[in-house]
Design brief:
Layout lengths: L8 H12 L2 H8 L3 H15 L4 E4 L2 E4 L1 H21 L12 E7 L1 H18 L3 E7 L8 H6 L3 E5 L8 E7 L1 E6 L11 H6 L1 E4 L6 H9 L5 E5 L6 H5 L5 E5 H7 L5 E4 L8 E6 L8 H18 L5
Parallel strand pairs: 3-4, 3-5, 8-9
Antiparallel strand pairs: 1-2, 5-12, 6-12, 7-10, 7-11
């Protein structure tokens, strides 16, 4: 493929056509007339040797190739937008821009809130957008990172990308405040016998793998897609849940629960900010990483929570 022969404006047209599935609306979205957008569609059809949009009754639907291109085009558009937005200098007090970070609700609660406070004070024109970590984060990490500014995730899940360490955390267990079967400590037999509330996603894999190595198979009575809901689902029950100590300190006031140390030496958790190498030398991204590292050092020097 000779990129020098391609008109990159077609990426803008292609994204609008695939998402709108209507030539007129796509043209209005990108500021082109209906004839100009029709001409762009014709060029795209010749390039891909595919109709991309096929008329079905009174509307258009994506062809099989059009469906494949839908997500790829959005990613390519984001990468190009970030490429041409790169800067040699960055003044955080004067700039207006948005940084997009992928993070679990745990990382947002423990680290994102602290980062947002510092950004609010030092860079009032900067916006932060946190989006939930997708379940397939390890499937195509390069593509995911290329279309965002960073990923908040502990070590032990992904590798091969630059990262800056932020802070350390540890795992504890949540139990009901007046749990009838658990006193001041848990036993490994308790972990196999009692029902669990689980959050089994890719990025807590090291802690889950450790349980398997100890021969412990949690009996998951409830599964939830939010670390912050764990206390509410443990309170008033015999259930237990594995949770990060810093988050537990923030949440134990929300429900009648308490923390108990694991009956084994739990694998530590080191949170990091990961990014795609394409961002390494961008001035704005350097500022973001340095600010994140500074906030991480503040957290590392403070008590948990």
């Amino acid at each position: 493929m000779n990129l020098a022969r391609l008109d990159l404006n077609l990426v803008v047209a292609l994204r609008a056509l695939l998402e709108e599935r209507n030539v007129t609306r796509a043209g209005q979205r990108v500021g082109l007339s209906q004839p100009a957008m029709s001409a762009a569609l014709a060029r795209l059809r010749r390039h891909f040797s595919d109709d991309l949009l096929a008329r079905v009754g009174g509307h258009y639907e994506l062809t099989a190739l059009g469906q494949v291109l839908l997500d790829r085009t959005a990613t390519a558009y984001d990468v190009l937008e970030r490429l041409f937005a790169s800067q040699a200098d960055f003044d955080p007090a004067a700039e207006r821009r948005e940084f997009r970070l992928i993070a679990s609700d745990y990382a947002v609660a423990v680290f994102g809130t602290a980062l947002a406070r510092v950004v609010h004070e030092e860079a009032p024109g900067i916006r932060l957008r946190f989006t939930q970590t997708p379940s397939g984060v390890t499937d195509d990490t390069a593509t995911l990172l290329s279309a965002t500014d960073g990923l908040l995730m502990p070590h032990g899940v992904i590798s091969g990308f630059p990262a800056t360490d932020l802070y350390d955390d540890r795992w504890v267990f949540l139990v009901c405040e007046d749990h009838p079967d658990v006193g001041d400590r848990l036993t490994e037999d308790d972990l196999s016998r009692l029902p669990w509330v689980t959050y089994l996603r890719t990025y807590d894999a090291p802690a889950v793998r450790q349980l398997g190595m100890l021969g412990i198979e949690p009996h998951a009575e409830v599964s939830v897609d939010s670390f912050q809901l764990l206390p509410l689902l443990v309170a008033g029950t015999r259930r237990i849940a594995l949770i990060q100590a810093r988050l537990a300190r923030l949440l134990t006031s929300l429900a009648a629960v308490r923390t108990v140390e694991p009956p084994y030496e739990a694998v530590p958790l080191r949170e990091a900010l990961w990014w795609h190498p394409v961002h390494t030398h961008d001035a704005a991204h350097i500022w973001l990483r340095e600010t994140a590292a500074r906030v991480g050092r503040l957290l590392a020097g403070a008590p948990e929570g």
